[in-house]
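Limitations

Structures in this collection are predictions, not experimental determinations, and the ligand pose is part of the prediction. Treat each record accordingly. The example that follows, with magnesium ion as the small molecule, is included so readers can see exactly what is and is not provided: the inputs are given verbatim, and the output is the predicted complex.
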Amino acid sequence: MVLIVQKYGGTSVGSVERIQAVAKRVRKTAKLGNNVVVVVSAMGKTTDTLVNLARSISASPSRREMDMLLSTGEQVSIALLSMALQELGQPAISLTGAQVGIVTEAEHSRARILQIKTQRIQRHLDRGEVIVVAGFQGISSSNDLEITTLGRGGSDTSAVALAAALGANCCEIYTDVPGILTTDPRLVSDAQLMAEITCDEMLELASLGAKVLHPRAVEIARNYGVPLVVRSSWSEDPGTKVNSPIPMPRSLDGLEITKAVDGVVYDIDRAKVALLRVPDRPGVAANLFGEIARQNVDVDLIIQSIHEGNTNDIAFTCLKGELNKAEAVAEAIAPVLRTSSSAVAEEAEVIVDKEIAKVAIAGAGMIGRPGIAAKMFKTLADEGVNIEMISTSEVQVSCVIDAEMCDRAIAALSRAFEINSSPLQLPHSTDESHSSTVIPAVRGVALDRNQARLAIRHVSDRPGMAAQIFGLLAEKNISVDTIIQSQRCRIIKGIPTRDIAFTLAQTDAEVGRIALEELAATIGCGEILVNTEIAKLSIVGAGMIGKPGVAARFFAALAQEKINIETIATSEIKISCLVATEDGVKALQAVHKAFGLAGKEAVEVSS
Ligand code: ADP
Ligand code: ASP
Ligand code: MG
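Predicted complex:
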């Protein structure tokens, strides 16, 4: 018998009428002869209302009491939906997270699922009942049986975890939009529906502020190969398929705390070009990468660090075979930049490095686990490996290092992360041969307005510094996002130094700053800068690998709107720029349009 897990979000069960409509849909699925497990969120904005209630009593309520409070929202909707099903003549039973056997860590407000005991569900399914489960909540594995929640938006995670544990044939996420769109329809009215997206792309988008799917849900789908779709609960349209690769066999024990890192990968075919002291104004990156694209050179990583005075540094990597062309473009552009900015005191300079290697750790288990990147940096530091460039994404952390150190770094990383498989050489183009459709270079665009940027000036340029900084933040449970290390080396008191900047959640910015101020005193670096007036704009697409011109088009769209790029960071399938908060939405709209993602008709958002 086919087993389907369906999840309905807050808006989808926001009123009595909506609950009745959902009941009809569930009944129809069951009548077709399927076993159905339904996961529901709290009605409408209930969770927000509960949060506000708590705040009106306490500025910092305990996480345990918050879980006790917030978990009630889902309990209301499961009971009502179960009643609505019974009214339709459909046998049904509502169960809380605890009753259904969703066992989690004892970590209140952000618990990870350890295990799902499926016996009780199975018993009810065998009786022909539809099971209505409260999303977002679980019960701790400790003797105290604490009620826990999985973090905001966590019902998606409950649903996909149940589908994995039950070996469901499909997990359907029903929401208030037709599926996953090219960008947030509330910000860009002509965002278009995607027919499909890969888990890796969705992980990047989901963590970049596309809240349509909780990133941890995507991580579970990817790890266990759960067939996943996102659809509208208002229509019969097929929605968006989220495709996962064929998963490696994994135990269901420790469901969400399985190994964070699946593999170590490397690339020794790239060289680095850095342009130092280019003017900090709109159009510079567009100019440089436009010319590089015209020469048909594919760039891999791009990093623009925080500006110093009125100049920036931009560094990128390209295939060694294309280095001469890339260098020629950079050399040709540097003098133009010099003459066009009289305010720039020191002249732009081009530096080329052929002897580099990129080593990376990959795996979907790194999300929300700040210790993983820190452990990578520590492992490299212990081997005496200095990190030249860092690039982070949701599923990969890459470091550019001296080519001579590559073998040692790979061996040390494999040991540290207990990787037995041999390290993989990274592909240089997307392999489209086993895909029926051509993967678009850019699948979607996301704007994250909840981030802040922290920067540390003049960190001494030697092994171990990144490990100390990010190790400390990990200890404070702060997840950092994009990490950017400057190319420019400044000699302070005889020691070469670089600046390190990174983004993190705005809510963590103050704690992060205080921690770094303390560290600065002991490791002797410069000023700590905090900027909360930033927005992160990112383009995501697995098809951008090996395709020249994607970055150029992105930067050109921003230049045309006269939007200055503060920093640039990339991963294999993502390019992110920080821009001023006030430019965020305008930038998003321009970039969405530049990649031809805007359709003619606006997609309707239900409410
Ligand atoms: P639910 O309550 O069903 O879980 P959410 O509010 O959590 O729904 O997520 C759906 C919302 O996500 C949409 O209403 C939309 O505003 C927002 N969203 C942001 N980015 C995207 C995107 N790329 N595609 C679809 N929806 C998006
Ligand atoms: N009700 C919870 C929230 O609003 C969980 C969810 O909807 O996924 O965050
Ligand atoms: Mg949601």
